[in-house]
Amino acid sequence: MDQQTREDLLKLFQTKLNRAMVYYLETCTRCGVCTTACHVYQSMPQARYIAAYRAEIVRRIYKKYFKGQGKLWPAYGEAKELTEAALQELYDAAYSCTGCRRCMVYCPFGIDTQMIMSIAKLLLVGAHAEPEILTLLADTSIEKGRSLDFFKEGFLQGVKNLEQKVLEKWKMEAEGKTVIPVDVEGADLLYVALAGAHSIIPAAAVFNAAGENWTLSFFEAVNFGAFVGDPTRTKLILDRIVNEALRLKVKEVCICECGTAYRVMKQLSGTQPFKVSSVTEVHARYLREGRIRVSKAAFQGQAITYHDPCQIARNGGILDEPRFILRHLSDDYREMAPDPRYNYCCGGGGGLVALGEDTLDFRMKSARVKAEQVQRTGASLLATACENCHTQLSDLNRHYGLGVNVQFLSSMVADALVVS
Amino acid sequence: MQTVYYLILVPMVYAAFAVFIVGTAVRLIQTARRPAHPTTLQIFPKKQPAWLYALADTFLMPSILRHNPVLWFFLAVFHLAVLLLIIGHLELFGDWPVFQGVPHEVFLGKGFVGLAAAVSLLYLLFRRFHAPVRDLSVPEDYYLLILLFLTVIFGSQMDWARRWYDYDVMGVGAYRAYLWSLVTLKPFVPDEILYSGHAFMLVLHVFFANLFLMLFPFTKMMHTFLALPMNLLKRG
């Protein structure tokens, strides 16, 4: 690696060193309590999958270039030079970590390994060594935001096709209202879906049943910039939605079932005149306020369990709402873990599912403990509230022969709707 | 030999405390001045009041208790022993009525606190020779534990000699004179300390302690001050 590249990368490293990051880099005592926290380590017990070990890859570079010991006594902390080989190690560490932060629950200091991995991801982006597909997908999202007029027609046509399906299934009288409203200024709620009918159709049915004054966003919620660890792209992708919400003067931005999208929107959009909610929260609210009614008949006879998407639950705070909903849908709901904080990651987060076939082998091997967690419940239906979790859990279902029916929670609500 | 003793007991002590105090202050201030993270870093569910849970996390180490109770036991014993030893050292400066809540001669515990510290340090050191912790550890982890062990064993040895073997040549009075002289910047080492048969024990204890203090601000030992702020971040 030439000196200029190294200097540029170290400048990027420097941009990450805020107070919290310095706490995390300085304080690890390598006590090893995080060892049994990580689903990857528990499934494949190798030292490189210990949370603190991944962090050490980054920390040893920090020790070399940002601490006196790097020059005076590098052997003391095994300070590491930033080289091509180091980049490979950074890649292996960053992309064997889903950023679920289960390790942070165990750590006596609450060290956030996901944060430390964000340094690794940024260095990889800076060295053009990141998984290209994620950057491509991020750039596509950004381009859509810039050239919306180019995409509008196609989008609106696609939405019209979906309206038919909503009407067919839920036979609700549209009452002159558009089944799937788009670009409605003055709507109360902006729903940001994913590029998939399953993300739009059931949600539309529930919003209409609740009599919500809503509008569908032009944009998909998913934030590939966050997966690849590029703060600039993350913000640009986020800004498309924020600007649309401001333009339409909505009171609430409701994010579909996408973990990272929800967390990024909720925690990184700053102070805005709208509130941010997840579709799970909104459905729970509708149930609580009696704006929708659901029947237990839809899932009669099925034992149901729920996988908490890490970015929504442990990292986003939405733990009670899905359970509230599921108790309205079934009398046989079973918990997977003694305490929702201890629910294992599905193994697909942090961009791993987005990398598709390339990571399939790793994703299946690293999430064995998740499959076991599901199996132990004896449930026949596995509900979840996140796109990538659903994909990963479906892959796990197939790979480990779990024999469960993997469902989106929002789609279960729609299926159980009692439409008067 | 007495010159070497004096160098370790006076100039090196001043240097060690200077590095420790200034180094710690500078590092804490530098870190505090960095920008805060723009958003929450907390783990859910929220437990209120957050500050109380953060204090509990920091001082009771509940997650270690849950996931590695043996480690928790030795960590708790070690840290408690350190606290009692710090109090004991403060009593080498003078009498503090507040510490006599449990009436005792200087160094509460009749020598068993030092023993507990030494044994728990050995556990913490030996566990680092086993996988998986071994694969995670760096030289710093071993150096600091060995340094602490040496400090504790030489220091405890002086206490054991006094408590268990009636060796009272180096008494509390002599220490008070020596330590006060350091604090008032008129350093003076009494003959009982400089010329007694066990002087080398004290000198080695102070030597290793000085090294530890000098390393402190630049190492993971800063977890002493950073643990609480970090747990506050985790609890929101």
TrEMBL record, chain A:
Q: Does the keyword Electron transport apply?
A: yes
Residue intervals of the 4Fe-4S ferredoxin-type domain: 18-49, 87-118
Family matches, as Gene3D superfamilies: Alpha-helical ferredoxin (1.10.1060.10)
Q: Which SUPFAM superfamilies match?
A: alpha-helical ferredoxin
Which GO molecular function annotations are given, in alphabetical order? 4 iron, 4 sulfur cluster binding; metal ion binding; oxidoreductase activity
Q: Name one Pfam family in it.
A: Fer4_8
Keyword list (alphabetical) reads:
4Fe-4S, Electron transport, Iron, Iron-sulfur, Metal-binding, Transport
The protein here is known as (Fe-S)-binding protein
From TrEMBL, chain B:
GO BP terms, alphabetized: anaerobic electron transport chain
Where do the NarG-like domain residues begin and end? 75-235
Main localization (coarse): membrane
Where it sits in the cell: the answer is: Cell membrane
Q: Which GO terms describe its molecular function?
A: electron transfer activity; heme binding; nitrate reductase activity
Could you list the residue ranges that cross the membrane?
A: 6-29, 70-87, 107-126, 142-160, 193-216
Q: Which InterPro entries match?
A: Heme-iron_electron_transfer, NarG-like_domain, NarG-like_sf
Keyword annotations for this protein, in alphabetical order, are: Cell membrane, Electron transport, Membrane, Oxidoreductase, Transmembrane, Transmembrane helix, Transport
A GO CC annotation recorded here is: plasma membrane
Q: Where is the signal peptide?
A: none
Q: Does the keyword Hydrolase apply?
A: no
Q: Among its keywords, does the record have Electron transport?
A: yes
Q: What membrane topology is given?
A: Multi-pass membrane protein
**Name of the protein in its database record:** NarG-like domain-containing protein
User: Which species?
Assistant: Desulfacinum infernum
Q: Mind giving the lineage of the organism this protein is from? A: Bacteria, Pseudomonadati, Thermodesulfobacteriota, Syntrophobacteria, Syntrophobacterales
